[in-house]
Write a structure and sequence with these properties.
Strand content: under 5%
Largest sheet: none
Structural class: mainly alpha
Number of strands: 0
Helix content: over 70%
Distance between the termini: 14 Å
Number of helices: 12
Mean pLDDT: 86
Shape: globular
Low-confidence stretches: none
Order of helices and strands: HHHHHHHHHHHH
Radius of gyration: 18 Å
Length: 242
Amino acid sequence: IDYSAKQVLRRGVALLGLRITASQVVALGWHSVAMVVLAVALTIVCGIVLARLMGFQTFFGLLTGGAVAICGASAALALSAAMPQHPLKERATLFTVISVSTLSTVAMVLYPMLAQLLALPSVQAGTFIGGTIHDVAQVVGAGYSISHEAGDAATLVKLMRVAMLLPVIALAAWLSQRHQRAQGEAGKGPRPPLLPWFAVAFAVLVAINSTGWLPSGLVKAGQFASQWCLVMAMVAIGMKTH
C-alpha cells in the first residue's frame, strides 16, 4: 500500500507527459496560452492566500489551488509527492482529491448548460470548458457534449493547463527545500534535487512525444498505464487515511 501511495504515484505522474505535445500548445495561439498561464497563476495565489487566512499552511493552499488550477486529482497527487512529509499530508491530499473530483463532476453537468444559456460560439464554449473544469476526462465529456469543435478546443486548452504541472511542481519542490532549511533539516541526508525525478521524466516524455517518433499504440498504452497508476495511488492513500 505504501509503495502504491508513493512510487506508483510518481510513475503515474511521469507518464502524464504522454498526453501533451508541443504542437498542441502552438495550436492554441499566444492569446489562449497567456490566458491559461495567468488563470493558473491567479488560482494558485488565491488558494495560498485563502489557506493562510483560514489558518492553514502555505502547502495546503498550493495543493488545493494547484488541483483546481491544473488537472484536478492528478495535480493534487503530483504536488503532494513533491511536498515535504507531514503527519496530515495524506489526509489533506485525500480531502483535496475527493473535493476536486466532486466539483469537477458537478461542473461537467452544469457548465455545458451554462455555455448554451449564454449562447457562446463553439470555440468560446470549448475554451470556457477547458479553462475551468478540473479533470481531463470531465473536460472531454463536457466539451464534446456541446459540439465536436467545442470538444477539440476544450481538450487543447485543458492540455495546456496540464503542461503547467511542471513549473508548479518545481515551485512546490523549491518551497519544500526552503521549508526544510527553515526547520533545520537541510543538513540531514543528501540534498534533494531542484526537480523531482518524476517531474524530469514528465518533461522528457513531453519532448519525446512532441517529435512524433513514438507509435500511437505505445502512447495510448502509456496513457492507460498512467491512469491506472494514479487510480492505484488514490486507493492506497485512501486505505492509509482514517
